[in-house]
Amino acid sequence: MATLAPSAGAPAVTQNPDIRYLGRLLGDVIRAYGGDKLYKQTEYIRSASVDRARGIQGADVTDTGLDALSLDDTLSFVRGFMLFSMLANLAEDRQGVAAEPGADVASALGRLEDEGVSRDAVMALLDDALVVPVLTAHPTEVRRKSMIDHRNRIADLMRLRDAGRTETDEGENLEEAILRQIALLWQTRPLRREKLFVADEIENVLTYLRDIFLPTLPALYARWERVLEARPPSFLRVGSWIGGDRDGNPFVQAPQLRFALSRACQSALGYYLDAVHELGAELSLSTELAHVPQPVMDLAQASGDASPSRQDEPYRRAISGIYARLAATYLGRTGHTPPRPSALRGEPYDGPADFRRDLITIAQGLANEGDGALATGGALGRLIRAVETFGFHLATLDMRQNSEVHERVVAELLSRAGVEKDYAGLDEFARIALLRRELASNRPLGTRFSDYSEETASELAIVEAAAEAHRIYGPQCITHYIISKAESVSDLLEVNILLKEAGLWRAGADGDPPQAAIMAVPLFETIADLEAAPKIMSAYFGLPEISGVVKARGHQEVMIGYSDSNKDGGYITSTWGLFKASKALEPVFAQAGAAMQLFHGRGGAVGRGGGSSFAAIQAQPRGTVQGRIRITEQGEVIAAKYATRDVAMANLEAMTSATLLASLEPEGISPRDAARFAAAMDELSQAAFAAYRDLVYGTEGFKEFFRELTPIQEISGLKIGSRPASRTKSSRIEDLRAIPWVFSWSQARVMLPGWYGVGHALAGFEDKALLADMAQSWSFLGSALANLEMVLAKSDLGIAARYLPLVEDQARAGDIFARIRDGWAMTHDGLLAATGQARLLEKNPKLDESIRLRLPYIEPLNLLQVELLKRHRAGEDDPRIKEGIELSINAIATALRNSG
User: Fold this and answer.
1) I want to staple 315 with a disulfide (CB 3.0 to 4.6 A). Which of 23, 283, 552, 672 is the partner?
2) Using CA atoms, how far apart are residues 534 and 12, in angstroms rounded to an integer?
3) Which one of 138, 150, 480, 872 is the catalytic residue?
4) DSSP SS3 for 558
5) The pTM is what?
6) How does residue 646 score in pLDDT terms, banded at 50, 70 and 90?
7) What is the set of domains in the chain, with CATH numbers?
C-alpha cells in the first residue's frame, strides 16, 4: 500500500505515473520517520476522503479519522498532505499537465503563415517588441525557499530517471537519492518563524534571476534563431518590483533600492565572469594551426597576459584581458572583490556595450575559420545574448508609489520653495498649469538647507538613489515609475517633478523636447479608474512637453490592475472593464503617435487575473498588444512557472508565442459580431456588478461575515511578506489589499471573488443562443469562462459551510451564505449552458483530472483548519494550534496552486 498515492483506478493515476511513484516514496518516508501509527492514520484518512470524493456508497457517513489525531499528530498529518500536493504539482509540471497546445513560437509562426502573415512581418514586429515578466514581492508564496529548493532537487533527479539512469553523477543509487530529498523535505520546517524583510525578498528573487532566467533566456533565443532562421533582438527580458515598490510598504526606502540593484549587478557580473573563465578554457586555438585576425591579436596584445605557455594562443590571452576588465568592473560597480580575482590589471568597462564589443571581436575572429561553426551558438553565443539581454543590471527594477504620497511631497516642496503655499487646495487645471511651469525649468525645488518631513525626505532620497543607479548600472536598470491610484493628469506630472529633483527629467532647450530618463506610468485599478483612463491619457498626451518626450521615446506604458478592479466590481465586470479600457486607449495612443505598452497587473488567483497567460494574452483586443506587453508574476506563481529551467522555458515561450499571435493574427470575429458581443457584455457586466456590489458592499454585516468565516485574521499574521495586509489601519474591505481578500476566500473554498455575480448575469440574460455563440467564437469570453470554470471546480460550498460556526451572528451568516450558495448554483448552471457541457471541465480532461486528484487531499485539511480556528478563536493558547492553522493554510494553498 502506497500511502498518499491515489487509489487504484482513479482517473488521474493512469495519466501520471510520477504521482504514484513519488507518493509511494513519501509513504515510505512517513513510515520511517513518522512511525507506523502516523502512517496508518494518514492512510486511513486518505482512503476515506478518496472514497467520499468518488461517491462510494456510505462514504459520507464513514469516520474521517480526524478525531483520532492528537495535536502533534495533526501537525504531522498536515505536513504529509502538504508534501503530497507539492510532489503532485512537481509531477504535473514535469508531464506538462498545464501545457497548452500550440503555446510555442514554432507553432505560432506556422499558424500565422497559414493566415497569410509573412516571416518578414514577424521580424519587423520583433525589431520593436518588448515582452517582460515582472517579478513582484506580493505575498502569496507560503512555502519557505528551503522547501522549494528540495523540490527542485527532486525535479533534477527525476530528469535523470527519465533518461534511464539508475545512479546519480556521484554514484548514488537514484531512487535512494530521491527518497533522501523527500526525507529532507519531511524534516524541513515549512513555516517561516520570522517576518520577511525586504532584503530577504530581494535575495529570494535573485535565485530565480540568477539560476533560472540568466541561463534560460539565451537558450530560448538560440531555439528561436533556428525557428526564425534569423537572429531577433533581445525583446524578451525580465523585470522586478522588489526593492522599488513602496506602495503601502514603509520598509522599502533608498537603502533597499540600492541593495536590490547592487545585488542584481553582482549576480550578473558574477555569471559573466564564470562564463568568460570557461571560454578561456575552451578556446585553445593556436596560431600554429589557425589564422587569427588582427583585431583578436590586438586584444591579446592589450591583455597584458605574457604567460609563455599561452604565447601561441591569442584567444586565451584576449579572454584573459576581457576577464581582467570584467573583474575590475565587478569591483568598481559592486564594491566587492570578485570570487575569482584576475592576476592581470584591467580598466573597467564603461558599460555592457563595451564588454559585448570585445566578445563580438572574438566571435568574428572565430567566424573566419572553416565554415564559421566556432562562432555560431555555443557558450560564446549564449554569453553575447546574455549580455544583450541582462546588461550589468540583470533585471529592470520598477519604482512604485501611491499618488497620494506624491501629492503630499510635491505640496511640501512647493511650499518650502515659496512657489505655492496651498497646492492641495488647487483645482486640477491650476495644478497642471503650475506643474508645467516647474517642468519647463531645471531649477530644483528642494534644497539641502530645508528641514523636510520624514516622508518627503524619504521620497527625495529614493529618486536620488535612482539617479545614482543610472550612473552606476546604466539607464536600463530603472525605466518605469508606476503611480498607484492614478486618477488625473497631475498625478503623472507630480512624478516628473520628483524625477526632476534628481536630474532624471531635464527641461527642453533650443526647441528640443524635454528628456525623461524614467517613464511615469499610471496604474488604473478600480472600475472608475479604468473608465477614466482614455480621457486622462488623451489630456496627458495633449501637453506639448509630454508629447515631445513620448514621441522621442516611441512608446508609453499604461498599467491596468486586475486585483482592485475585481475587489471593486467583481470578476466579469473587472475582466470586461480591462478589455474595454485597453480597446479605448488604442486610438488615444494612435493619435499621439506612440506605441501602446500595456502592463497587466495579474496575480495567481482568477480573481486577480490568474489562469492561462497564453489564452489571456491572445484574448486581448486586437491592436492593443503591438508586440509590447509586461505582466506581473508573484508569489506561488513564480515558483510554479519558473522553478526549473524546463518549466521556465515552457512558460516564457507561451508568453512570447501568445504575444506574436495577439499582435499579428487577424481578428477572429466580424465587426458586426464584435458590436453585438460588446453590447451583450455591457448588459452582463452591469447585472454582475449590481449583484456583486449588493452582496459585498450593500449587505449589512458582510464585512464581519467575511472576517469571521475565512482565516483572514490568521493569514494577516503569516510571515510571507514584508508589507502589511492593509494599506491603512481600517478594517473596511475597501482598504484591505486584494491579495489577502482573494487568498482568504480560497482557503475557505468559497472562491467568491472569482465568480460571484456572474450567475446572476447569465441567468438574467434572455438570449441564451447569443451567449453560447459568444462563448464558442469569441476568445475574450472563452478565456474568461475557462478561468471561471476552474474556480468553480476548485470551490466547494459543502466544505465552506463547515466554516459557518465560526461566524458569531449565526442568523445573518445563514442568510448571507444562502445568497452565496444560490449565486454559485446560478453561476454553475449558467456556465454549463453557455459552454454546452454536462459537467464542469468536461472539455478540459487534463485539468479535470488534476483537480479531482487534489480534492480528497484538501477536504481533511479544511476540516482540521476549521477545528483549529475554533479553538484558537476561543482563546486556547497552545502554540501547536496556531502552528497547525498556519500549516493548514500552507497546505491548502499548495494544493490549490493558484490561490493568491
Assistant:
1) 283
2) 47
3) 138
4) strand
5) 0.91
6) confident
7) 255-390 (1.20.1440.90), 398-604 (3.20.20), 666-704+750-844 (no CATH)
